[in-house]
Specification:
By secondary structure, the protein is α/β, with parallel strands linked by helices. Helix content is about 35%, strand content about 20%. It has 13 helices and 21 strands. The chain has a six-stranded parallel sheet with strand order 2-1-3-4-5-6, sandwiched between helices. The radius of gyration is 23 Å and the shape is globular. Bound molecules: S-adenosyl-L-homocysteine, iron/sulfur cluster (SF4) and FE3-S4 cluster.
Amino acid sequence: MTAQARNTRKLHILTHGCQMNVYDSARMADLLRPIGYETVEAPEGADMVILNTCHIRERAEEKVFSQLGRWRKLKEEQGGRMMIAVTGCVAQAEGEVLAKRAPFVDLVVGPQAYHRLPELIAAAHRKTGTVIDTDFPAEQKFDFLPDDAAPQGVVSFLSIQEGCDKFCSFCVVPYTRGAESSRPAASVVAEARRMVAGGAREIALLGQNVNAYHGEGPDGKIWGLARLVAELSDIAGLERIRYTTSHPNDMEDALIAAHGTNPKLMPFLHLPVQSGSDKILRAMNRKHDAAKFHRIVERLKAARPDIALSSDFIVGHPGETDEDFAATMKLVKETGFALAYSFKYSPRPGTPAAGLPQIEEAVKDARLYELQAELRRQQYAFNDSKLGQTLPVLFTGPGRHANQQAARSGYMQPVVVEHSTDLTGQICEVEIIQSNPNSLLGRLVDKEKRAA
Ligand code: SAH
Ligand code: SF4
Ligand code: F3S
């Protein structure tokens, strides 16, 4: 056995929540690799397990404690050798509670302190009991990323902005992720270049409010998202750019215009609106009304007529009447969404709406059912509308069955193409010959004729 192999420790990371957590998990693995941790698929036999958690709804939090219960058993079976760390938004919000309720957890680390992981692990080795770090340090965790990040593949995610200052009545994010902050543009561009060199063809820029991006540019000026996207689209080999999640109030003119002029910007935008009732939007502290949302959608469609939208909705926010819910249904029907996520309002400790009189569960259930039926109908109709069309798709890897390749349309639809040779990383024109609820079946039109 070589010294290298003897020193290798096994690291298992389980990620809940949003794409930003997925990105952070990959960065934690990058940080721990130089000190001897190699990632493994299963927790059995691991020296260290990390649960990267989400606090957005009550269910997400319950999942954390049941997962920790399973790992506790595993730790006992391994003679207590396995180090358990909890990171992410539950770690931030519930650090002390977590340490009390699950004292077998060795390490609790908030989302802004990941760059300190190596020293925290060393501290946890020295100490019995839980080591907690839920600081919001002055230094940015992104400044400490190693340059040799493991490639993510054809579609890569890149966090450019973190935190939120908007304080919607229902939401924990401003408390768990802290104040809004943006990475300097040069650091984002350098990471994007590395990703493209490692095989990325599509990059999704991530942020809790990604279009509030206001990073320092190399010219010393503050760059907005439109300026950053323009810079990124100069990277040769990067074919597709997306950004998520956006807030309607930060859809600046230049960004809307970019959808019409920048062919690398995909014709698909996730723009959460939450409700169609102005009264509820006010109660939610969203600071926009339904009319403003409609105006933004109209302007986006004027800039890019084939743009499709996705959104998030909450039903049963405190104060929501049948009339308010009807306004949400009206907004959905008038707008038309290619995809949407909808949730029952879940009271979160420490947020303003949690202290208000709550809507009955059965009412929330009925509203969610009705909303989801409409959103599903719209999703299927959107997929059907692509039948017979020829679309550029990006091949991401082999399909589930032999002779199949997996691809994605510009609208995030999974597309399956019958083809025997690997086309990973290529963008080709494909004719859509079948539409399924969650995917499309396509036929390669001309492999030689690549789409831009
Ligand atoms: N920054 C994004 C959303 C982040 S959270 C935005 O401003 O829209 C992702 C989604 O979770 C939200 O859009 C919202 O629909 C949902 N969500 C957040 N808090 C929730 C809560 N307390 N109950 C139910 N859904 C919630
Ligand atoms: Fe949460 Fe609102 Fe901030 Fe989005 S804008 S992260 S919903 S507080
Ligand atoms: Fe969840 Fe935190 Fe993301 S609460 S949705 S993991 S920002």
